[in-house]
Each structure stands twice: as C-alpha cells, then as structure tokens.
C-alpha cells in the first residue's frame, strides 16, 4: 500500500488517482499506524511553506514523518518537496522537515511569478534512472524554489534561473512540479521513483 499524508493542504485526490492509474493500492491518511504499514510515503502540498509546517506540527505529524522518512521511500510533491528542506522563507521564517540540506526562498528571476506552465527537464549528474526524461515537459505552479547542493539535484528546469525540479537524498525524493498534472511523463516519473525504491519499501501492491 502507498500512503498519501493527509495534513489538510495537499492535492490528495489527483495524486491518489495518479498512483491508482499505475495499478497500486493507495490510502490517504494521517494515521501513523497506517503510514507505518505503507511501502512508500507521499507528501503532496498546495499553499505556503509556513502554513503547511504549522499544520504538520499542530497535527503531531512532525516526528512521525521524520521516523518514516528514515526507513521508507518518501517523496514530496510541489510544496511537499519544499518542506523536505531545512528552512523556508515564505510568510516568515519556518523550519522545514530537514530531510535534505537547503533552504526555500522566492525565485530570483526576471520572469513573471508565479511560474505556471510547462517546462523542460534537464537531467543532472548523469542520473541514469531518470535519463529517459531529458527534455521532457512537466507542469509547474510555484513562486518559491529550493536552494541546495548540486549533489542532491536529479533534474533542473530553467525559468530565468535554475530551478531544482527533482531532488534526492538517499531514498527521499522531491518533485517541484506536479507529476499528477503532467500527463504520461508525470506518471512515468512516479513509476521511476517507485521502481528505484522498490527494494527499500518492499513490494508495492
């Protein structure tokens, strides 16, 4: 079972549909007992960094998420990816989950914000599992971006600045764009994540 974390700020229905379209059992839950039983943890998100972390803290999910990410494949989507980092500067300064070193701040670009629409991926660091997605288009909606070390970058996109589009540290991944809104390419990227981490999370049903 794949578990989508329900903390009141995620586009959970469309994310659930994306994984169901891959043929997997999916559950939306904020129950630690149910999250513990999942092979993979999905953290979606729509909204601001501070509001999301406030919700996670108020619901008592901070420590459970840290415990889960230490032992299970974990992926943050859109705002969920931003929360993986140490600190965010949206609507004030907030601590993030701290799974990947780095900070999240407003995009430094001359282009109009928010960045909305389709953009090409550039696969970094000769990342073989994602090599087939070079120059593929995915759908972005955001005004803030992560700043992190090159070694954590799987893919970037250009919007007058280099945007970390896919990040990874161990079995923790993040996608800044919306794979669930990115057609066959998005579904393919989610499948690649599941396949890459299958041996860690166990057999996905």
From TrEMBL:
Per the UniProt record, the lineage of the source organism begins with:
Bacteria, Bacillati, Bacillota, Bacilli, Bacillales
SUPFAM superfamilies given for it? Class I glutamine amidotransferase-like
* Recorded metabolic or biological pathway in which this protein acts: Amino-acid biosynthesis; L-histidine biosynthesis; L-histidine from 5-phospho-alpha-D-ribose 1-diphosphate: step 5/9
Q: Which InterPro entries does the UniProt entry name for this protein?
A: Class_I_gatase-like, GATASE, Imidazole-glycPsynth_HisH
What this protein is reported to do is described as: IGPS catalyzes the conversion of PRFAR and glutamine to IGP, AICAR and glutamate. The HisH subunit catalyzes the hydrolysis of glutamine to glutamate and ammonia as part of the synthesis of IGP and AICAR. The resulting ammonia molecule is channeled to the active site of HisF.
Q: What is this protein called?
A: Imidazole glycerol phosphate synthase subunit HisH
Gene behind this protein: hisH
Record-level Gene Ontology MF annotations = glutaminase activity; imidazoleglycerol-phosphate synthase activity; lyase activity
Please give the chief subcellular localization of this protein: cytoplasm
**Which organism does this sequence originate in?**
Gracilibacillus oryzae
């Amino acid at each position: 079972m794949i578990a989508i974390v329900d903390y009141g700020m995620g586009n959970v229905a469309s994310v659930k549909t994306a994984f169901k379209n891959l043929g997997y059992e999916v559950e939306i839950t904020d129950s630690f007992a149910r999250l513990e039983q999942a092979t993979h943890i999905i953290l979606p998100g729509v909204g601001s960094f501070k509001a999301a972390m406030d919700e996670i803290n108020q619901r008592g999910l901070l420590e459970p998420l840290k415990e889960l990410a230490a032992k299970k494949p974990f992926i943050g989507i859109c705002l969920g990816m931003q929360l993986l980092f140490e600190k965010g500067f949206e609507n004030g300064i907030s601590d993030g989950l701290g799974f990947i070193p780095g900070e999240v701040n407003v995009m430094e670009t001359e282009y109009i914000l928010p960045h909305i629409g389709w953009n090409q991926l550039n696969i970094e660091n000769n990342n073989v599992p994602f090599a087939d997605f070079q120059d593929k288009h995915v759908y972005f909606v955001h005004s803030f971006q992560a700043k992190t070390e090159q070694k954590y970058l799987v893919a970037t996109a250009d919007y007058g600045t280099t945007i970390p589009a896919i990040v990874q540290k161990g079995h923790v991944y993040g996608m800044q764009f919306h794979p669930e809104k990115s057609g066959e390419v998005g579904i393919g990227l989610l499948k690649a994540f599941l396949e890459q981490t299958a041996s860690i999370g166990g057999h996905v049903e």
